[in-house]
UniProtKB/TrEMBL annotation, chain A:
<dbReference type="Pfam" id="PF12704">
    <property type="entry name" value="MacB_PCD"/>
</dbReference>
<protein>
    <submittedName>
        <fullName>ABC transporter permease</fullName>
    </submittedName>
</protein>
<keyword id="KW-1003">Cell membrane</keyword>
<dbReference type="InterPro" id="IPR050250">
    <property type="entry name" value="Macrolide_Exporter_MacB"/>
</dbReference>
<keyword id="KW-1133">Transmembrane helix</keyword>
<feature type="transmembrane region" description="Helical">
    <location>
        <begin position="348"/>
        <end position="369"/>
    </location>
</feature>
<feature type="domain" description="ABC3 transporter permease C-terminal">
    <location>
        <begin position="298"/>
        <end position="410"/>
    </location>
</feature>
<keyword id="KW-0812">Transmembrane</keyword>
<feature type="transmembrane region" description="Helical">
    <location>
        <begin position="292"/>
        <end position="319"/>
    </location>
</feature>
Automatic annotation (TrEMBL), chain B:
<dbReference type="InterPro" id="IPR015854">
    <property type="entry name" value="ABC_transpr_LolD-like"/>
</dbReference>
<keyword id="KW-0813">Transport</keyword>
<protein>
    <submittedName>
        <fullName>ABC transporter ATP-binding protein</fullName>
    </submittedName>
</protein>
<dbReference type="InterPro" id="IPR017911">
    <property type="entry name" value="MacB-like_ATP-bd"/>
</dbReference>
<feature type="domain" description="ABC transporter">
    <location>
        <begin position="2"/>
        <end position="240"/>
    </location>
</feature>
<dbReference type="InterPro" id="IPR003593">
    <property type="entry name" value="AAA+_ATPase"/>
</dbReference>
<dbReference type="Pfam" id="PF00005">
    <property type="entry name" value="ABC_tran"/>
</dbReference>
<dbReference type="InterPro" id="IPR017871">
    <property type="entry name" value="ABC_transporter-like_CS"/>
</dbReference>
<dbReference type="InterPro" id="IPR003439">
    <property type="entry name" value="ABC_transporter-like_ATP-bd"/>
</dbReference>
Length: 417, 240
């Protein structure tokens, strides 16, 4: 078998060849980028937050008729109510620890800001963006965080304040990535930094290995590991508690929480969504990503199927059109396998040509997506894998019609019609 | 060269058996030019397809170039078709997507011949049929007679032991038919063995020997009254 006569023959069928090659090129370009996006989403979904997720749940509740917290007396009252809840939750059988929190990773509520090495810096000009988590000395234990440097908060470090109080904490714990960003020399411990453009310094007393920010949106991707923990109980007419249970006790404790809290104070609202396991929080956070990945996966499969169907259709058409010609080739000495190889080689040339155009389109599409949607640069092996897939797909799709062609008997050459 | 003994070809359906060839006997010697004649439906084309290993047969024996080809598999039959037999078809059967050179090259490629030898043989064959200057033309750019000459060149290029021609002038006008026939005669004079199927008595008369087929059997014309009726009818059609 030789390519020049085959190319010459293909040139006689330009329209079909160009259309199928273009379809293969577009399939390659779209599938490569789609798979790259899917993989990026899966990587996002699978990344560890840094928490002990298995045994963690979150309680969000609102008091009815609670004081506003504007006066010092009201603030104290709110804090007392909050501590009563903490004590009640902490005393439940099966509870390992509990802490008041404003949010947890992957939860659709976050408190974001910036940190500077200098006082009074405009927030947008800070040295690093961050998410703030507020909690007490039990937060590290409750979250299951791994302290890699410095110390945990003590009860004395923990303050309480109203939601609108802009005063900053004296001490903070930061994640290691944030510490390294602020102090690349690795000497963040004991250093003072300024939160949200404040003039009051906060001293870094500890570093935790890993703590993801709440948001899973692409806008937060630049500081996804930059978390700051402040020793604060935030007093308001609502409160949120993170509870870590002993292994295997999560569901039982979650079921018992509403009655326990109502026993402390019945004047509160706890709805079906108020007690939520971290597993559910994770599922909700990534529902859109998983849905998008599945949708793109299905679209890729449909696209590949349509392309395969196109190849089958065109090859079947050509086999029908060249029925007599195949018989003549057989009469002149072609074996069945020669006919099979002829169509496979022909498909390889078309798919190969389409794939080469597809590589260019795939890279161009990636560049466009990078410029418009903050997508990463697609590694070359995605394109090479895509090339292998479309070429293999072409060979699989062409096999059945090519085999049918190889079964055309040589006697066809002698038939007049 | 070609010897069929008691050969039969039966087409079977669920309800009926049709004998295309029955107790068919023929012996073509090397260097002979034999015309196989007979009316339409007599089985002469079936004979040709079996002789060319394009079809299998049901019973009897067939020796081609002293080789019993009765039980060969498909690949072996393809190899013999490619190396020992040259075909000339009524409808020329050139591949329209390939130019003259590439058309003549087709059987040589299946033989796995090296490019320089292929080129030498192709140009030699085209020169012999007087079409070397048309090597880059496509079939659609040639007359019917030229197309058949290309087909003959394709059949000759592989230096086959046997040339099988199926109504080689059937699609040509008288002048072109004469040219093609003269070419076949010239090829025969050079030593080729040719078996030509035709229902044209004029054409058959130019062969060395005629074999007459009626109802799937080779018949002796002097003794078989069926021939006289069928032959007269066929001759009448040709003249009409």
């Amino acid at each position: 078998m030789s390519l020049p006569p085959m190319i010459a023959a293909l040139r006689k069928h330009k329209a079909g060849v160009v259309l199928i090659a273009l379809q293969i090129a577009l399939t390659l370009a779209i599938v490569c980028n789609a798979v790259f996006i899917i993989y990026a989403r899966i990587q996002n979904v699978q990344r560890r937050t840094g928490l002990d997720e298995t045994n963690l749940f979150l309680v969000t509740q609102q008091w009815v008729g609670a004081p506003s917290g504007d006066s010092p007396a009201d603030l104290e009252k709110l804090d007392t109510m909050l501590r009563e809840d903490l004590n009640a939750l902490g005393s439940m059988p099966g509870v390992e620890s509990v802490t008041p929190v404003n949010s947890v990773p992957l939860f659709p509520s976050s408190w974001n800001g910036s940190e500077s090495l200098k006082p009074g810096t405009d927030m947008r000009a800070g040295n690093a963006r961050t998410t703030f988590y507020f909690g007490d000395e039990q937060l590290l234990k409750t979250f299951g965080l791994h302290l890699v440097a410095g110390r945990n908060f003590t009860a004395a470090d923990v303050a309480h304040k109203a939601l609108r109080d802009s005063s900053e904490p004296n001490v903070i714990i930061v994640t290691k990535p944030l510490a390294d960003k602020l102090f690349p020399q690795g000497d963040a411990l004991g250093k003072a930094i300024y939160l949200d453009g404040s003039n009051t310094p906060s001293t870094i007393v500890g570093e935790v290995e890993r703590l993801q920010v709440p948001s899973v949106g692409s806008w937060a991707s630049s500081f996804v590991w930059n978390s700051t923990i402040a020793p604060l109980r935030m007093n308001s007419n609502f409160s949120r508690y993170a509870v870590r249970t002993k292994p295997g006790r999560l569901e039982a404790v979650m079921r018992a929480v509403p009655s326990k809290l109502y026993a402390v104070n019945a004047m509160r609202v706890l709805d079906d969504d108020s007690v939520k396991s971290f597993k559910d929080i994770r599922a909700e956070a990534y529902r859109a990503d998983i849905g998008m990945a599945v949708l793109m996966g299905v679209i890729c499969l449909i696209l590949l199927a349509v392309t395969a169907a196109g190849i089958v259709g065109l090859t079947s058409f050509w086999v029908g059109q060249r029925h007599r010609q195949i018989g003549v080739r057989r009469a002149l000495g072609a074996r069945k396998i020669d006919i099979l190889h002829y169509f496979q080689m022909e498909n390889l040339m078309i798919a190969g040509g389409g794939a080469l155009v597809g590589i260019v389109l795939a890279v161009a599409l990636n560049r466009v997506l990078m410029s418009k949607f903050e997508m990463q640069s697609m590694p070359a092996y995605y394109v090479l894998a895509g090339l292998a897939v479309v070429v293999a797909l072409g060979q699989i799709a062409v096999f059945v019609p090519a085999r049918r062609a190889s079964n055309v008997p040589p006697v066809v050459a002698t038939r007049s019609v | 060269m070609l010897k069929m003994t008691h050969l039969s070809k039966v087409y079977r359906t669920e309800v009926v058996e049709t004998y295309a060839l029955r107790d068919f006997n023929i012996d073509v010697k090397e260097g002979e030019f034999v015309a196989v004649t007979g009316p339409s439906g007599s089985g002469k084309t079936t004979f040709l397809t079996i002789a060319g290993l394009l079809e299998t047969f049901t019973g009897g024996t067939y020796h081609l170039d002293n080789l019993d080809v009765s039980n060969l598999d498909d690949n072996a039959r393809s190899k013999i078709r490619n190396e020992k037999i040259g075909f000339i078809f009524q409808a020329f059967n050139l591949i329209p997507d390939l130019n003259v050179f590439d058309n003549v090259e087709v059987p040589l490629r299946y033989r796995g011949m090296k490019a320089p030898e292929r080129k030498e043989r192709i140009m030699g064959a085209l020169e012999r049929v007087g079409l070397a200057s048309r090597a880059k033309h496509y079939p659609a750019e040639l007359s019917g007679g030229q197309q058949q000459r290309v087909a003959i060149a394709r059949a000759l290029a592989g230096s086959p032991r046997l040339l099988l021609a199926d109504e080689p002038t059937g699609n040509l006008d008288t002048q072109m038919a004469r040219g093609v026939m003269e070419l076949l005669e010239e090829i025969h004079r050079d030593g080729a063995t040719i078996v030509m199927v035709t229902h044209d008595p004029e054409l058959a008369a130019r062969a060395q020997r005629n074999v007459h087929v009626i109802d799937g059997q080779v018949v002796d014309l002097a003794e078989d009254p069926r021939f006289h009726t069928a032959y007269a009818a066929a001759a009448g059609q040709v003249r009409g």
